[in-house]
Every structure is written in C-alpha cells, then in structure tokens.
Amino acid sequence: MSDIDFISVDKFKTLMAINSRINSSYNDVNAMMVFILESAMQLVECESSSLLLVDKADGSLSFAVALGPKGAEAKNVPVGKQSIAGWVAQNNQPVLINNVADDPRFFTDVQIKTGYVSHTMIAVPMSVNNEVIGVIELLNKSEHRRFDNTDLKLLQLLCEQAALAYYNATNLKFVQDEVTSLQDSISAGSDYHSFIAKSPAILDLLHVVEEAAKTSSSVLITGESGVGKELFAEQLHMKSNRRDKPFVRINCAALAPSLLESELFGHVKGAYTDASSNREGRFEMADGGTIFLDEIGELPFELQAKLLRVLQEKAFERVGSSETISVDVRIIAATNKDLEKMVEEGKFRNDLYYRLNVVPLRIPPLRNRKEDIEPLSLFFINKFRAETKKNFTGISESALARLYDYDWPGNIRELENAIERACVMGVPPCIKFEDLGLIVNEKSEESSKTDRFSMEFSDIMDGNDMSLKTATDTFKKKYIMKVLEMTKNNQTKAAKILDIQRTYLARLLNELGIR
C-alpha cells in the first residue's frame, strides 16, 4: 500500500487544492499560517487548532496562530519546552493522544487561562531538512469522536507541505527586506549602511529616531564600541527633511588637535606654514545638512568652546580669519565614553554636554539584544559569500547556538568579523560551529561587577505558575524595582544602568505594573 492509499478521493482533492494555494503566494506569511490551520481543521474535522513556532535561541514555543473558541486568548500564553508541543519539537515526532488530561506532558496553562478544555489532540512537527521550525496542534475531534491514524497521516502530509511553504515564505521575506534595504542604501547613496534590526529595544529606538528626525535638535548617541552608533546617525539624517543635503562624518579621535580644528572649521591661506590656499571645513561642507561627530569625547578641550558657539549661534571663523561664517547644520555626536563623568572631572564642558544631549540615544550592546544576532549573521553571510565567492546559504544550529552563547564584547563589529572569518575558512553550504573560532569564556570580572544583587529561585516564582514568561516578567519587575530603588526612582539613571532607552523603560514600567 502506498503512502496515500488511505486517503479518500475527496480528501485527496482537498489536499491538492490546499497545496496549490499555500504555494501560490508567499507574500503574506501570517495569512498563509491562518489558511494552513483552517485547512487542517477542514481535513481532520476538529474544534480548535494552533500553529506554534520554535525560537531557535532557547527552543521555547509561542503561538503564531490559534483558531477556535478561545484562540485569541490562547495566543498570549507562552508554551514551555516540557509541554506536548515541546516534546514534539524536540523529538521531531508526531503524537496522537485521545486522553490529554492523563498525559504527563500536558501543559495546563492554556486550559487554566482560557477555560477551554482539551480532551483529544494530534500534534505534528513542521520540519525542513530535519530541523523543526514549528508544531501544528489539532484539538477535540468533532462530535466527541476520537482521532485516528488516518487523521494523523493526513496532518503529517499537510505539515510537510506547510513547513516547506512557511520556510520558503520566510526566506522570501528576508530576501525582499534585503532588497528593500539595498535599494534604500542605493537611493540614499553608496556611503550609507543597511540597517538590520529585529529586537524590541532597537525597534523602540527607531521610533525615537523617527520623532527626532522631524526636528533639527542635537542628538547624542552613546554606547559601547561597535554597537552601530554611526548607523543610527545615518537613519536620523535619511529620515529628516535634510536627507537630500550632505551628511558629513568626522572622527574626532583620528586627527591631532591642530589638524582637527582646520578639518572642522577650515582655514585661510597663510593661517599656518602648510596653508597654501583657502580650505573649506567640514561644517561648511555640511551646510543645510547634517554633521556627524564621532568619538566626541576625544574633542580637545580648547575646541569645545568653538563647537559650543556653532551650536548656539550657528557661526564660526576659519582658522586664521576674522570673517564670521554662518551655517545651518544639524549636529549629531557619538561616543563610547561616559561624558557625565568627564564633565565631573573637568575634561568636558558641561554647557557643551547639555547642548549636545538634547535628544539622547543609548544603544544597547549586542549581548542585550540577541534577537538581532541571527538576522545580522544572515546579512553578513550574504555580504561575504559574494566577496569570498562561496555559496553559503545559512548557518547550522550548533553555530547559531554558539553565536547566542557568546558575550560579544566587540558587538556588531566583532560579529561581522566572525562571520567573515567563517566564510573564508568554512565550506558551503552552511557556516558550522568550528568555522566561527569563538571561545565562550566564563563570566568576566568586569561583568561580575554589575551583579549588584542576586535572586533565589523562589524570588521569581508566582504561585503555581512556573511558565517561562511569568518567571521572566517577575524577574524583570523585581530587577527594575531594585534598580529604581538604587537610583531613588530616578528613571533616567535607572535606564542608563539597565542599558536601555528611557522611553523603553517607561513602557516596561507600564507593562509590568510598576508604580
């Protein structure tokens, strides 16, 4: 007997129609997932269905779509790895259960929180190349009947088609996003970088960028080396009404103080020995547009007063000249130094600091926004496979796990270097664990200094609710409350300690019910 001999003619026609439709268009992934579930319910005749996606970072599952009487409520409940769906995902094996309550893997949170009682269940993995990307669950056979092996085989056939369609659709979306990003870079100019982000922290910052771009106020971008401060400066310029005007960059640490003044403000012929002709400075070049002052913490103290004047009066004189030049320039500065500490130590003018820090942007390190690691890695693979002329198509699970485990002291710049090295040393089609050459160290002495307090397991327990989401939310709430206590409820200082944007902290306070 062949694999499809058990299917009735009507079921076979339905399955063929489903296959044709889900592979006809990959443009709307969400609509596709809804249709897949609706089709599964039609094939197997059940009351409820859900499609859960696997998080590659930690193996947890979350509802992508849930249909049925309590589908909308179920979507908000996190699903643990110890659940039936978690077992299916980890073992890449389907299950047919006609007495759900008696199964030791039964995850009761959904039932408790929605009130929907599960009696019977089929759960089948969605896998591509033996890698599970999701699980489809069907609950409660219609008319109080039991699921049987025919139902299971039907759902397995559908899941094979659905997994491949979902995989193709998500890959298509990634490619389309890359094309859009590259088109944006080309339209804006070859000197701009593609901006890749998925984490909530960075998406929140982009909202701040969009609001700040509507004004000409000064922006101070802070964060560790390699987090992408220059890319945020580019976004501020490209989203502003100055986008068609110059975007001029200068690294204040790259030039000696004597040369930096001339580079910023220009000079006239004879201003010094080698000044054989008049020369425009970067501020004149940026007139009407934006100037990006990277490493502003390295700006010599004697030049800080001159920069302050540009901020206040939009005017300056070239080196060796008494003629005042006026410019209309938006100033964006960036640093990895603690300017507040430098102000206290007398190394940076406090009036200049406050003039620069009208709109502060604090960029979190990569280790605090690990959702960005995979999309960034895939972007760099696409970049370096062209340069190395090797047809890499992705990254193995073990290599991706290593990327998630690593602490990334060098942030995105170090990730880019690691992927480039892997593309040079590795063999297609996938980047492998050993290609990366990363060593995951024990917690460094420096990071241990940030452990201001610890929590016991009981501290993050919330009654009988042991779900990962509840534990995470409880930990976040208690941790933030302790930091606020340390800072005497100064939210600006707390955001700085937490290494998140002030607006993101305000959102967390509201979501977690912290008053």
Task: Describe the protein.
The protein is an alpha/beta fold and 515 residues long. The chain folds into four domains: 9-173, GAF domain (Beta-Lactamase, 2-Layer Sandwich), CATH 3.30.450; 200-362, P-loop containing nucleotide triphosphate hydrolases (Rossmann fold, 3-Layer(aba) Sandwich), CATH 3.40.50; 367-441, Helicase, Ruva Protein, domain 3; 451-511, no CATH class. 46% of the residues lie in helices and 14% in strands. The chain is built from 21 helices and 14 strands. It has helices at residues 9-22, 29-44, 71-74, 84-91, 109-114, 149-188, 200-213, 229-238, 257-265, 282-285, 301-313, 339-344, 350-356, 373-388, 397-405, 411-425, 433-436, 445-448, 468-486, 491-498, 502-511, and strands at residues 46-54, 61-67, 95-97, 121-128, 131-141, 219-222, 247-251, 290-294, 315-317, 324-326, 330-335, 359-362, 394-395, 430-431. The strands form four sheets. It has a five-stranded antiparallel β-sheet with strand order 2-1-5-4-3, with helices on both faces. Strands 7-8-11-6-12 form a five-stranded parallel β-sheet. Strand 4 (121-128) and strand 5 (131-141) form a beta hairpin. Helix 1 runs antiparallel to helix 2, helix 11 packs across helix 13 (350-356) and helix 14 (373-388) packs across helix 16. The longest helix is centred in the first third of the chain and has 40 residues, at 149-188. It is elongated, with a radius of gyration of 28 Å.
Provide tags for this entry.
single chain, 515 residues, alpha/beta, Beta-Lactamase, Rossmann fold, Helicase, Ruva Protein, domain 3, 4 domains, five-stranded antiparallel β-sheet, five-stranded parallel β-sheet, 14 strands, 14% strand
